[in-house]
Write a structure and sequence with these properties.
The protein is α+β, with helices and mostly antiparallel strands. Helix 2 packs across helix 4. One of its GO terms (molecular function) is DNA binding.
Length: 289
Amino acid sequence: MAGAGGARGLREGPGQPVVVRALSLLEQFTERRRALSLSELARLAGLAPATALRLVRHLTEWGALERLEDGRYVVGVRLWEVASLSPRGHGVRQIALPYLEDLYEVTRHHVLLSVREGRDAVLIDRLSSRHATEVAYRVGGRMPLRTTAVGQVLLAYSTPGVLEELLAQPAGAEQRAEQGTEPEAERGAGELPAADLRAVLAGVKQSGAAVVRRTQPSRTVSVAAPIYSAGGEVLAALSIVVPDAVTPAHELVPLVRAAARAISRSLGHQPTASGAWRHPSREAGALPA
């Protein structure tokens, strides 16, 4: 990367910047494509083989990629080191982890912590029992906003522009196997029409929690609640996923909300005397969103 940038600047001729081409190579790796050959990388990224080879060499030297014995490439550990510095990833996770562990001890199934990234939710931590019901979510994986509990929480508290942009997508867009999204996680929970989704999100804001049931890959119920930063923004969503019909959802909601509020307090967010959540100024030490 440094070599390419130092030799030719950020652009190579009239095409895309070098950094964009390099990132286009990295984004070809997904849950189902963990190891790729040079020719596969070039084809998927739409790059000339010579260009792909040069960039892959730089990425490998820097540590963003690692070369296997069979010649294929995988994502390097160096990227994980850099990603762990994200305040919306490791920073939130570090503060929330003790509360996630407490919630896990009570439920003994799945406890999820997610943040919004663009049109998806990204799972930044998951605690699960060996005997927990099957789910399709993995740490670092993407989850749809419309059809998951954490997604509905993050969407309900997002800016109006984010919601309108998502609703403008063609029907069923979130249920397609888009790159980097976990398609299995989307089955069993159909997309709601725009009007119905707005009503659901209004209910999420009123109750402070989202409840979503699904049938695949197993019958589960997910309950999620928002986590606030010191500045009053919804920074993340906390969720538990348990087998459906084992515990009534209305009994799970107070449990998840209480844990999310405890995490919010640890992040510097304070309730008012009446119990409502206040939104102090950013000078109060808000964690960068």
